[in-house]
Structure formats: structure tokens, C-alpha cells
Amino acid sequence: MATGSGHPTRHPAGATIYSVAERAGVSIASVSRVLQGSQAVSEKTRKRVLEAADELHYVPLAAARSLAVRHHEAHGLVLPELSGPYYSELLMGFEYRAAELGQSVVLMLAEGKADLPRAVRKLATRVDGLAMLGSSAIPDETVSALGGSKPVVLIAGDEKATVDTVSSENTSSAREITAHVLGHGRTRLLFVGDPTVSPDIRDRYAGFVAAHASAGIVAAEAVTVSLREADGTALADRLLRGDLEADALVCANDELALAVMVRLRGSGLRVPEDVAVVGWDDVMTARYVEPGLTTVRQPVRELGARASDLLHERITGSAAPRGAQVIPTHLVIRSSCGCPPPPVAVRALP
Predict the structure, then answer these.
(1) DSSP of 258-325, one letter per residue?
(2) Beta strands per DSSP E along the chain
(3) What are 22-41's pLDDT values in tens digits?
(4) C-alpha span between 282 and 272 (Å, rounded)
(5) Which Gene3D superfamilies match (predicted)?
């Protein structure tokens, strides 16, 4: 095989971006621009590159393009775990949007990592930007340091100067759902969830406290539990044993609320007559249980998609100045709070 200078050369069995560049007599950067559809090349160069690629049966590889343009074409996503509906919805929204943008996703789970900050820093070397869930697991200084050198989007985290943040509204909706429960005459409400583990749970508890203050009542301390199904079951057992007293539970997510409801009803307590239960997220199951779960709907999949979009904009230099993007949430009234169930539609016989 001959090059443009007439000197013979040998290529490996699989053609690479380098062999295409050599065959066409151009730089690998020019090959990369042509293959990515850039207009910043002459028609003559474009034709030479495409002809060389065709002759060599070259199939562009993401890794090769990365070497040429110093991009990985990958978004990093750090989540605490994948159990429960919240994380799977978030991941689906993030990955679907990234795929639309032509990007792959490298996922890291924080659970089980002995040195999470180090693992996150290592991940940052393999991707063009990072999105991560705001939580106490990743120190603020690690997030800020990463944001100073690479695009970072914090999901459901506090606003920071060096990173972008995307979150759902929490405080106002938590205040609204708590006030709704208080409006049913309940006076011994407990907030179920740990406000110290993440900003969104902290803000939901703040809304819980604010609703009590508006009603002239001192709010109880939060019952600090994790947000998993097993923790909801264990909390219900504490109520059944008399270790806790409440006539209503404001749960930090639906997974807790649904587990509590099932356990209480299975043990003879009535929901909402004996104990009202409300949640957060509006997962699919919330509308099918009996009674239907009153909750706050947050568009989790949209949250993931928005984070992916913003990260890509920051990577490509097209993002607006940094700031916090907040997605609205709203109250969904069903029957677990004490409201009557909706009337059953009766179909007339022909």
C-alpha cells in the first residue's frame, strides 16, 4: 500500500484513525473532524478522508475519536445505589438523554467503596464530565475540587459556586402535604427519614417543621431511618410495639410509606383511620395500593434527563452561567391521608 509520498507502508489488520490519516495525507485531527461531520474542513480534505476510510474499511471507534479530540464521549454518573424505584428512574432519564446526545454513560455506585472520593476522582479521568447525587457520602471539598477542573452537575444537592445543580422543589411541597395532614385533625405527626443524609430530605423536614409552626405546633424531631423498604417495615413494628406514638406519618419517600402501610394493615391497624400515611415521589405503586397513597410527585426521570442535558452543555461550552435549576413538584391527593376515595365509575349496561 502506498502513501501520498509514494513510500510503501504497512497497516495493522484493523484500520485505525492513524492509518486513515496517513492514507489521506492529513492529520488525525482532520480525520476526526470529517468523521464527526464538522464543517471546519475543506471539501477536498473531506473527500480524501472519506475515500481513504472507504478503501481501508475503517469503522470509527469512540476510543480513537477520543484520542484525536481529547474527549471520551462519556458522561459519568455517581449514585449511592440502585435499589428502589428512585435511582432506576433517575438513571433511565440520564442515560436516555445522554444516548440522544451521542454520549455513553459510565455508572459508579457509591455503596461499598472504601475510599469514595478517590474512586470518584479516578472516574473523572475517564469521562468528560460528572453528575452525582448530592449526599453526605461525597465531601464538599471533593465536589468543589472536581468542579474546578471538570464539568460537574450535582443532582438534588446544595448550590455551589463551581458546579451546576439540578434538583426538585422540596420545602414548599413538604409544607403543603404536612399542612394537608394537619388539616385532617391529626396532631401527633412524625417525619420519617434522615435529614442529615441529603439536602432534599433536609428540605422536606424543613417544610414539615414550617407547616407545624404555621399551625402553632412544635414539630417532633425526625425519626431518622434510611429510605429503604426494610426500614419502613421496622418503623411500623416500633409503632405496633408502642415504642413510637403517632396518628400520622409523613414519610420522606414512597418506599418507606408503602412498606409502613402494608405492615400496619397486615397487623390490624387501619390506614388512614388509625394512622394516616403520606409519602414522596409518586411511584407507580402509589396509585394501585389500597388505600391510594397521598404523596408528592416529582419528575425523577426528567431530573435525570435535565442533569444529562446540562452536563453536555457545560462540556461543549454552550451552557448558561452557573446556577441552580429547580423542577416543580406537586401534591397528589389520594386516600391514605384521610380523604375519601374517589367515586368508582359505574359503566351502564347496554
Answers:
(1) HHHHHHHHHTT--TTTT-EEE-SB--GGGGTSSSPPBEEE--HHHHHHHHHHHHHHHHHT-PPSP-EE
(2) 74-79, 104-109, 129-133, 152-155, 164-168, 189-192, 248-251, 276-278, 295-297, 324-327, 330-332
(3) 999 998 888 877 776 666 78
(4) 18
(5) 3.40.50.2300, lambda repressor-like DNA-binding domains
Q: Which residue has the cell 471538570?
A: 150
Whole-number Å distance between alpha carbons of 249 and 252: 10
Domain range list for the chain: 17-69, 74-168+300-327, 171-297
Q: What is the pLDDT of residues 172-203, one digit of tens each?
A: 999 999 999 999 999 999 999 999 988 999 99
* CATH number 3.40.50.2300 is the correct assignment for the domain at 74-168+300-327: yes
- CA-CA distance, 109 to 80, in Å (whole number)? 5
Report whether CATH 2.60.120.1690 matches the domain 17-69: no
Paired sense of beta strands 295-297 and 330-332, if any: antiparallel
Say what the pTM is: 0.77
What are the cell numbers at 347?
359503566
Q: List all residues 6 or more positions away from 103 whose beta carbon is below 8 Å from its beta carbon.
A: 73, 74, 75, 128, 308, 312
pLDDT in tens, 37-67: 666 788 888 888 888 887 887 765 544 444 4
- At 129, phi and psi to the nearest 5? -165, 165
Residue 256 neighbours by CB distance under 10 Å: 29
pLDDT in tens, 298-339: 999 999 999 999 999 988 887 677 778 999 999 999 999 999
CA separation for the pair 37, 31 (Å, rounded)? 10
